Amino acid sequence: MATTTKSAPRAKAEARPAEAATKKIEAGMDTMAGFASKFSEYTEDGVKALKDSAALSTETMREIGSRNMNFMTQAMEQGVEMTQALASARDPREMLQIQSGYAKSMFSAYTAEFTAQTELCLGAWREAAKPFMSRVAK
After folding, report:
1. Contact call for residues 76 and 83 (beta carbons, < 8 A)
2. pTM given for the model
3. Residue 89: what are its φ and ψ, rounded to 5°?
């Protein structure tokens, strides 16, 4: 019987470190599960932000393409009108006036279109960056 009384306290003493180790392991696993959950949440948010950003960028590219086609169509129409006006010019001075008027109008149109597209691109960049910037602010 003496051996059984000695083994019971010894078994308790050996169980205490095992319990403590088990509790530490469980706490570590809970912490790891929390990290995995946060990482999964960040990944999900990142994919959603990327999708939103891509949608905005696609819309902007469509609008820029449409604006470019409209601008080129108008430029060609004005070029044809200028050619017709040059054909009906009576002297070199009138030809120079027609050409300079055309150059001024085209430069103004180009500058206005370039400015509009620059604003469009900057606005699109700001909108596309919003989902990512909100994540950085967290």
Report:
1. no
2. 0.58
3. -70, 145
Residue among 75, 73, 47, 42 nearest 83 (CA): 75
**Integer angstrom CA distances of residue 85 from 30, 50, 98, 106, 109:** 82, 52, 7, 16, 19
Provide the residue-wise pLDDT of the chain in tens; the chain has 138 residues: 444 555 666 656 555 666 777 777 877 787 887 877 777 777 777 777 778 778 878 888 899 999 999 999 999 999 999 999 999 999 999 999 999 999 999 999 999 999 999 999 898 888 877 776 766 665
How many whole angstroms separate alpha carbon 119 and alpha carbon 86? Answer: 36
Rounded to whole angstroms, what are the CA distances from 75 to 78, 79, 102?
5, 6, 10
| Distance separating alpha carbons of residues 56 and 63, to the nearest angstrom | 11
At 19, which helix (H) or strand (E)?
helix 2-87
